[in-house]
Amino acid sequence: MKLTSEQIKNVTVGASHVTFEDGLYKFFRYTDREYKTESKMNMLIPAGIQLYFKTDGNILNLKVETRAIDVPCTYFSFDIIVNGRLAGTIQNAAEEDLKGNYGYVKFPLGKFQGEFELGKGEKTVRIVLPHSTAAYIEEVEITGATYIEPVKRNKTLVAYGDSITQGYFGVHPSKTYAVRIADALDAELYNKAFGGAGFSPNLVEASDGIRADYVIVAYGTNDWGGYDKDFMRKNTQEFFCNIQKIYPDTPTYVITPIWRSDWEKEKKGGLFSDVENTITEIFSQAENVTIVPGRDLVPHDTSLFGDLWLHPGDKGMEYYYNNLIKFITKEM
After folding, report:
1. Is the pLDDT of residue 53 over 90?
2. Sheet containing 214-218, strands listed edge to edge, beginning at the edge strand earlier in sequence
3. DSSP state of 149
4. Engineering a disulfide at 116: which of 53, 88, 183, 304 sits with its beta carbon 3.0 to 4.6 angstroms away?
């Protein structure tokens, strides 16, 4: 069974919309209105978007295409999850090449395909799209399938943040902290984070009104180096007001910046602790907000970071997830 355009759209989760252009399915995290608030190329990366379905087919054939985009990462992985377990990937880099400071290494892009054994009987299948480069699907075929049915989760998680919440420099999209938190909550993830982002009141104001059961907010590390204290405080306060306007009663987890190797420096926004304190002070005004101290979510070990200073790799993401989920489940 070769999936039709309608079937692919029906089984896609975490996207604002899906298009079919020039023989490729393109998946968008942001509405046009949201995209125009920032117009950053990495907003076009399909971080957190998945195809999620039940089927009795036994083999998955997947054809994909990746393209260069104005971001540092060129490695990618399409993760194939069968009954909750990683069954295979389409990757452009070997695991041994993804060590040390691999985030800026140039890996080949273009057309790729893979064939994956799904096993007998009914199973759930997830195709988790890359979070690190522009990525599209050309074709999905399920051999031996008599049906394919979308799987819909009962809850929704909306995540705002920067490149860390987008997912890079994690290798596997299924292991990024936001995807894993959504899995643990049995929630559909809408990843509204993008690399280089700071608090953006306009992005929240342009929200498409997704009903959210949980919200994550994780900014500050870019604000620290990019804005002075007064401008950052203004942006943070306006962001807070807009989040409260759209999600007034939704449990919201605000994560202060995680550790980075240069945290002891003083930058445009002052000390690292100044950013932490500003975020904590402003968001503590609301009863539905839980402040998560981010500095110790990931151990202060550069080997846990894909660029050896700022962005967690898969091992770092595991610490991030394990420590963050404790805060969330404690509040439930």
Report:
1. yes
2. 187-191, 155-161, 214-218, 252-255, 289-292
3. E
4. 88
Cα separation, 117 vs 66, in Å, equals 23
CB 102, CB 75: distance < 8 Å: yes
CATH number, position 181: 3.40.50.1110
Whole domain around residue 296: which residue ranges?
A: 155-330
Q: What is the pLDDT of residue 309?
A: 95
Q: What is the mean pLDDT of the chain?
A: 96
CA 284 to chain centre: 25
Query: Cα dist. 111→62, 66, 73, 87, 294 in Å?
Result: 11, 7, 17, 21, 38
The pLDDT of residue 71: 82
Q: How far apart are CA 103 and CA 108, in angstroms?
A: 14
Residue of 175, 252, 242, 171 whose CA lies nearest to 209: 242
DSSP letter at 96?
G
Domain boundary among 150, 168, 191: 150
Here the tokens at position 96 are 């041994």
Do 137 and 222 lie in a common domain?
no
Helix residue spans in the chain (DSSP H): 5-11, 32-38, 163-166, 177-185, 201-205, 221-226, 229-246, 272-283, 314-330
- The tokens describing 204, both together, are 């929240």
For the chain, how many residues are written? 332
Q: Which two tokens stand for residue 328?
A: 């969330």
Q: Return d(Cα 18, Cα 205) in angstroms, integer.
A: 23
With contact defined as beta carbons under 8 Å apart, do 225 and 197 qualify? no
3-class state of residue 23 by DSSP: coil
CATH of the domain at 64: 2.60.120.260
Residue that terminates a domain, selected from 101, 130, 150: 150
Q: What is the pLDDT, as a whole number, of residue 92? A: 96
